[in-house]
Amino acid sequence: MKLIVAIVQDKDSQHLEANLVKANFRATKLPSTGGFLKAGNCTFLIGVEEEKVDDALAVIKKTSHTRSQYVTPTFLMPEAASSMADPVEVQVGGATCFILPVDKFVRF
Ligand code: 2BA
Predict the structure, then answer these.
(1) Which CATH architecture has domain 2-65+95-101?
(2) Ligand 1: does its nearest atom lie under 6 Å from the Cβ of 98?
(3) How far is residue 74's CA from residue 36's CA, in Å, rounded to a whole number?
């Protein structure tokens, strides 16, 4: 068994949740915050049999969209005067996924 930890944008989370259920995957959705943008995102914990990992990743890929976001650099350097800083564009994924081995899985 594997544990997929998938970080997705808030905007995609409801759609992903629905598509995972539809494809018969069990998942837990946790509210999370990106360290860089300090904006809300969602972290999904999805326990899957090894042979189903690619199917689950396909659902995540289909549902998660890359978007551009503008960040004001003063956000990173609050001491800088805001008038000096032009917003810069960052591409926020899609989905950031980690696939971890699971030693043991029990449900009571
Ligand atoms: P954030 O940390 O808020 O990052 C949002 C986006 O900002 C990132 O999109 C990336 O395009 C940019 N970014 C992040 N750190 C940067 C830096 N040090 N310099 C320049 N640009 C930077 P994604 O890479 O698609 O990441 C989306 C979210 O996924 C992240 O939100 C974070 O919550 C999570 N994430 C990404 N990589 C991670 C990792 N290695 N470990 C844990 N969480 C990660």
Answers:
(1) 2-Layer Sandwich (3.30)
(2) no
(3) 13
Query: Is 91's C-beta closer than 6 angstroms to any atom of ligand 1?
Result: yes
Q: What is the pLDDT tens value at each position of the chain, 108 positions in all?
A: 999 999 999 999 999 999 999 999 999 999 999 998 888 999 999 999 999 999 999 999 999 999 998 887 666 666 655 556 788 899 998 999 999 999 999 999
Q: Are strands 67-71 and 40-48 parallel, antiparallel or unpaired?
A: unpaired
How big is the CA angle at 62 (ends 58 and 4), to the nearest 5 degrees? 45
How many Å lie between the centroid of ligand 1 and the Cα of residue 43?
13
> Domains of the chain: which residue ranges?
2-65+95-101
| CA proximity to 57, closest of 27, 32, 81 | 27
pTM of the complete model:
0.90
